[in-house]
Amino acid sequence: MWPVAEFYSGSNELSADELRLAAIFREKGREDLANCVIEGLRQVFNFEDEEWEAWKNKALNV
Length: 62
What we know:
This protein is mostly helical.
């Protein structure tokens, strides 16, 4: 589901599959789970709004 190649190329956009999964959760009344789809990876990796190169350099220095 996660477009790894696009992410490594610097894209921080959600894939069509991720957007659809979030929409399904919303349709079922689970906004909390929809938010996990949208923000989950960014929070897990502490990516937030940081540029890919800056995040990668910080991660590799740990």
